[in-house]
């Protein structure tokens, strides 16, 4: 089973990626309900202040070389 929204673009808001990711976790059924709920709580309460208004295009990963 695939998440309901199986097509994300760089213009999708970050919140849609979170929904997609949580739907994917539910479809896999490989983690406990408690862990899944913890992931959701963190993604809905801790992350949005930074990423809420950004699109996927606006988010990147920076690597530092030591």
Automatic annotation (TrEMBL):
Keywords, alphabetical: DNA-binding
Keyword DNA-binding: yes
InterPro entries for the chain: Integrase_recombinase_N
Protein's recorded name: Core-binding (CB) domain-containing protein
A single MF term (Gene Ontology): DNA binding
Source organism per UniProt: Cryobacterium lyxosi
